[in-house]
Amino acid sequence: METIDLKCVGFDILNEIEYKQDTIIRFEQTRKALKEQLPAKIGRVLCVGNENGFDKRMCDCFNVEYIHTSQDLNYQWNIAVGGIDYIFCFEVIEHLMNPLLFLEQLRKFNCPVVISHPYQPFTPLKGGAHFHEMSEIAFYTLVTEAGFKIEYHTSLINRSSLFKFPKTFKKLLARFFLAFGYPRIELYILKVQDD
Q1: How far is residue 185's CA from residue 32's CA, in Å, rounded to a whole number?
Q2: What CA–CA distances, in Å, run from 87 to 57, 75, 128, 150, 184?
Q3: Is 82 exposed, middle or buried (0-12, 13-18, 19+ CB in 10 A)?
Q4: Could you tell me how far CA 142 lies from the centroid of its own chain?
Q5: Is 84 helix (H, G, I), strand (E, B) or coil?
Q6: pTM
Q7: What angle do CA 156, 95, 112 make, to 5 degrees?
Q8: Each residue of 110-130: pLDDT tens digit?
Q9: Phi/psi at 76 (nearest 5 deg)?
Q10: How large a percentage of the chain has pLDDT more than 70?
Q11: Which residues pair with 69 in a beta bridge?
């Protein structure tokens, strides 16, 4: 039996031909949601995972200084925890063998965490790079156990095929697909719980 390839390789949203349209849509939906939720000035950002165009462009939208960590996130990792105001963690957690340890590492920074993950309930893994598929209740339980509370949550449909329909019909289709577990991106803003 083959093992799952856990490498989390970020998309370059301008050059990934196979996923380009969906990735650009996902980026725009994420950017719009965060512009409505985050303050105008968010300070210094830690981007978790491999350096990629998605994170870079998101940080550019907020005009922030950012750093990446590319350490093995399945183990305890060493990075200075001072001077970080926000953490961006876009579609990394589903690749990890131990997401609880990972979230405990993020908690040390004592700052808000913007985190997203796909939820594809009807798509079998078949050796793909996702080690976990987390439902809303599973994710809530995980982050609560790690000492976070959810400040904001939204589900994003990121399928370009929706954009072939008229605008009013697209909204109805999106609600229908969300209700029946259509593959989607779950976007959260987490804050550390007060002890």
Answers
A1: 14
A2: 15, 18, 26, 14, 22
A3: exposed
A4: 15
A5: coil
A6: 0.80
A7: 60
A8: 999 999 998 876 555 554 667
A9: -65, 140
A10: 70
A11: 48
CA dihedral over 51, 88, 29, 58, signed as positive or negative: negative
Q: SS3 for 64? A: coil
> Across the strands, what pairs with 48?
69
CB atoms within 10 A of CB 151: 12
Q: What is the pLDDT of residue 174?
A: 59
Sequence-ordered alpha helix ranges (H) in the chain: 20-37, 53-62, 99-107, 136-145, 167-179
Structural domains of the chain in order of their starting residue, each with its CATH number: 20-192 (3.40.50.150)
Torsion of CA 179, 184, 185, 191, to 10 degrees: 20
At position 151, the amino acid (one-letter code) is E
User: Six-digit token pair at 101?
Assistant: 């340890």
74 in Cβ contact with 49 (< 8 Å): no
